[in-house]
Amino acid sequence: MASRKPLSLRQEGIMDFIRKYLGENRFPPSIREIGKAVGISSTSVVNYNLRRLEERGYLSREKEVSRGLRLSANAPDLVPSGGVLRIPIAGPIAAGEPIDIGEGVFDEEDAIELTHDLLPQHDNVYALQVRGDSMIDAMVSDGDIVIMRQQHEARNGDMVAAWLTDRDETTLKYFFKEPDRIRLQPANPTMDPIYVDPAAVQIQGKVLMVLRRLS
Amino acid sequence: MASRKPLSLRQEGIMDFIRKYLGENRFPPSIREIGKAVGISSTSVVNYNLRRLEERGYLSREKEVSRGLRLSANAPDLVPSGGVLRIPIAGPIAAGEPIDIGEGVFDEEDAIELTHDLLPQHDNVYALQVRGDSMIDAMVSDGDIVIMRQQHEARNGDMVAAWLTDRDETTLKYFFKEPDRIRLQPANPTMDPIYVDPAAVQIQGKVLMVLRRLS
DNA sequence: CTTGACTCAGAACACATGTTCGTGTATAAT
DNA sequence: ATTATACACGAACATGTGTTCTGAGTCAAG
């Protein structure tokens, strides 16, 4: 496990590519795919470097099995974990539309992977990508990914996606039930809450997480 | 979801075997391996049933790629993945202080796990937890976790953590270099940029990701 | 200079593996 | 009976893919 010497630039690139490929395809790349990605014309060179990496314990291989390689758990920056869950990105969300999850649509490409410790529960969980700046008062900006659990009730303090029937509008706000009305509080503390009739609100789900990726 | 008819016994067995195989080997089985395990002599029969399973959305396949199949996100059971990286949470960050990363301190407990596909690069990456509402103009709220890479240069359009020497203030803004000044643009499009003397700005790092967990 | 590691390129080889085609057998609907 | 559909079998095919061999370049040690 102890690797005094640094990885060669090429081997670093191979490791990176395998990681990336594995993340995208869920199965390991072939020798030739690695070669093309890293800029190696010969399969034997890739094979050679893979053997190197295997000796160092960075990965393990199955002989004579196509794509028969796996990253080791003790590779740098990699830690065995409680598991990874894959959440489908159901679709874009904008302020002017109700949230609609196409149940049958499983676009395998559009999914997001989260570690289990980040999201303990995973029942009825889905992700939406925000389109537009309509939710800046919820501290959610264009392109953000909102991970939520589908549910139709809310408890005080929950951040929920609420459909306001009289305004034809979906909004992300903190939910507070008051005696005769419902207070929807923006996440931005400088903005004022809105008050609505309980009959005019449909809870679409509870926001569990907001994730923003930058370039 | 949409599974009117029950799976045939054979297809059930195939699914079970794929799950088991994937758990043991971390890469998918070949058609012939599936056949042998389930008791099918012909590869075409396996292929046929795989196509059936694919139509039902239980798995997806890559054409003409050996072992090019993956289970769908149907079952949120743990699925092996490209790897998980652990990022230490260096410390709290507030507007009134420069960012200080205690290099030696690696509190194993305070770390965040991300899947590799979410964060391709991982050199000099660390995480900070935001304290206070001083960064609402960056669409970052109290408690948010900011993941950034330590660097002292920035390119136009990067979101950076900048230390304004004359104001004694750390701020998260989009970075734009203009002829004689630097424009720091808030993420919130309704707010105005600030302009500063290039000599009065120290780039602390580039923001890669913002993550907000809600109860 | 010579030697021997370490790394690389190219080509040929062997076989692992996905694909396809023709055929056969049920069961149910027409 | 006929047709349609779902499922199964075996064999041949095309190619994806790991393996191996020959040769060569680099670089530090003897």
Task: Give a verbal description of the structure.
Two copies of one chain form a homodimer. The longest helix of chain A is centred in the first third of the chain and has 17 residues, at 9-25. Helices cover 18% and strands 32% of the residues of chain A. Chain A starts with 8 loop residues before the first helix and ends with a strand. Chain A folds into two domains: 9-71, Orthogonal Bundle (Arc Repressor Mutant, subunit A), CATH 1.10.10; 86-211, Umud Fragment, subunit A. The first copy, chain A, is built from three helices and eleven strands. Chain A has helices spanning 9-25, 31-38, 43-55; strands at residues 59-61, 69-71, 84-93, 111-115, 125-130, 145-150, 159-164, 169-177, 182-185, 194-196, 201-213. In chain A, the strands form two sheets. Chain A has a nine-stranded mixed β-sheet with strand order 4-3-5-6-11-7-8-9-10, with no helix packed on it. A two-stranded antiparallel sheet of chain A has the order 1-2. Chain A is of the alpha+beta class. In chain A, a hairpin with a 4-residue loop joins strand 8 and strand 9 (182-185). The interface between A and B is large, with 68 and 59 residues. Chain A binds a DNA duplex (30 and 30 nucleotides) through residues 8, 10, 30-32, 40-45, 47-49, 52, 63-68.
